[in-house]
Amino acid sequence: MAEKYLVYALVDPRTGLVRYVGKSTSGLKRPKTHRAPSSTRGRTYRAHLLRALRRAGATPCIEILYQASVGLSLDDAERFWIQEMRQRIPADK
After folding, report:
1. CA 88 to CA 80: how far, in whole Å?
2. 8-state DSSP, 16
3. CA-to-CA distance for 89 and 41, rounded, in angstroms?
4. Is 34 helix (H, G, I), strand (E, B) or coil?
5. Hey, CA dihedral for 51, 53, 57, 61, is it positive or negative?
């Protein structure tokens, strides 16, 4: 059975770099919505990223960073993974 509570990353397939970390209380349903054209609306960092990928003909890869059967620690896990991924980004990116 797939876990319902996830922290996931959207990875730029051109570079292999994690560009966004998010959480979901609906398993892979939420991360997969980022591939829909409607997800590029707005002025958020995520929308900007998705528009740039779409213009380049690319689709973000989804990487599961954390999963659990209960969502009690989901916010903490998301914060942890955001910080972890920021530390992994090369200084020139």
Report:
1. 13
2. -
3. 26
4. coil
5. negative
